[in-house]
Design goal:
The protein is of the alpha+beta class and 211 residues long. It has two domains: 117 residues, no CATH class; 68 residues. The protein is built from three helices and eleven strands. A hairpin with a 2-residue loop joins strand 1 and strand 2. Helix 1 runs antiparallel to helix 2. It is globular, with a radius of gyration of 19 Å. It starts with 7 loop residues before the first strand and ends with a helix.
Length: 211
């Protein structure tokens, strides 16, 4: 952002890619959108409520109260019971600098514009599926998103350590970690403690956060 705060990050973990959009804040920046190469993605209102939720089957748009106002199926997915609802183009403005455009499963774009310069990230992907239902409106985080959040916490922790070293280069005393990082780490580990999370995922996230 013009403020110097991080706006868009693209992370690679093995063969997977994820794109995350953060709010224009120095500390405790909320995530406004996440898209992964597995075909999952979500955009969030400033309050944290889900705005758009997409998967390999289709997607849905929710209002601020969590009520579904639109839903659709991708042409490549198997139709769910009832008539197929095609996607009408969606244009979202996450803030004054970042927007999201959804024209199709493989035509999803995150656009960043500031000080006359523009950057576009194609975050759409073509994923074939054999069946399934649309994602629920609840804010459920997938494996890609949990790993991405763990990497974000790790990066923030490293940045904080570097900032402390630059401010106090002669001091060898370990300093207390900021409370917001400790809170985010604990919350992330709790999200991985659900029955639906695998032992491998929990170990993976714990190793990233504590590295």
């Amino acid at each position: 952002y013009p403020s110097g705060h991080l706006a868009v990050t693209v992370v690679r973990e093995g063969s997977r890619l994820a794109c995350v959009v953060q709010e224009d804040k120095r500390r405790n920046a909320e995530i406004r959108a996440v898209f992964s190469s597995s075909g999952r993605g979500a955009c969030y209102y400033p309050s944290g409520a889900v705005w758009i939720n997409v998967s390999s089957q289709g997607g849905q748009c929710l209002d601020r109260a969590g009520r579904r106002v639109r839903r659709w199926m991708w042409p490549s997915s198997v139709a769910s019971p009832g008539p197929r609802v095609p996607l009408r183009p969606i244009f979202l403005s996450l803030n004054r600098h970042v927007g999201v455009r959804i024209l199709g499963q493989d035509r999803v774009t995150v656009s960043f514009l500031a000080m006359g310069q523009q950057a576009k990230f194609n975050v759409g992907t073509k994923v074939q599926v054999s069946g399934g239902q649309l994602p629920p409106p609840a804010r459920l985080l997938g494996e890609d998103e949990l790993v991405l959040l763990a990497l974000r916490v790790r990066i923030l922790r490293l940045c904080d350590r570097l900032r402390q070293r630059l401010r106090f280069p002669s001091s060898e005393r370990d300093r207390t970690e900021p409370a917001y990082l400790t809170s985010q780490s604990a919350k992330l580990l709790r999200l991985c403690a659900t029955p639906d999370s695998s032992d491998k995922l929990r170990s993976w996230v714990r190793a990233i956060v504590n590295a």
